[in-house]
Amino acid sequence: MNDVYVFIEAEKTTHGVALLCRLLKVARSSFYAWRAGEQARAARQAADDALAHEITVLHIASRHAYGVPRIHAALRSSGRRINRKRVERIMRERDIAGITRRKRRSLTRPAKKAVPAADLIGRDFTASAPGEKLVGDITFIATEEGWLYL
């Protein structure tokens, strides 16, 4: 929606604001409200830039190791009252990320030198015609009370 308001702001010298708003299906009041908030957006951007500088200093001091939780804790311990989500957003926008020193290891990979087990039963699951060989995975035993499924 911001792009629409920027376009109207750029084209208002050649066409009327009312016409542009009608063509783009935007309320005129919302365009003027967006324009009135320009100063507040600029102040917020300046505050975000100052906070980004502080975050960068802390990040460099930690040898690029600290991520969002530690940066947020460091800012809070220095007396700044700040939301963790705001720190996260600013770090994401400026590509500031901590490092993970632990290696992640998957436990489900087979060993490279593992030898497959020999087929001692000689199982053959290939069917020469449909319905000729049936294989099931339910094992049952007949008992006096009925069938016992394992």
Notes on the structure:
This protein is mainly alpha-helical and 150 residues long. Helices cover 47% and strands 5% of the residues. It is built from six helices and two strands. The protein has helices at residues 2-11, 17-23, 28-36, 38-61, 68-77, 84-93, and strands spanning 140-143, 146-149. Strands 1-2 form a two-stranded antiparallel ribbon. Helix 5 packs across helix 6. The chain is elongated. The two termini are 62 Å apart. The model has no long low-confidence stretch (mean pLDDT 87).
Task: Please sum up the structure shown.
The chain is mostly helical. It has helices spanning 2-11, 17-23, 28-36, 38-61, 68-77, 84-93; strands at residues 140-143, 146-149. Helix 5 (68-77) crosses helix 6.
Total of helices: 6
Radius of gyration: 33 Å
Number of strands: 2
Order of strands side by side in the largest beta sheet? 1-2
Indicate the mean pLDDT.
Answer: 87
Strand content: 5-15%
Task: Give me the strand/helix succession.
Answer: HHHHHHEE
Q: Termini distance?
A: 62 Å
Structural class: mainly alpha
Contiguous runs where pLDDT drops below 50 for at least 5 residues: none
Tell me about the biggest sheet?
2 strands, antiparallel
Q: What proportion of the residues is helical, as a percent range?
A: 40-55%
* Global geometry: elongated
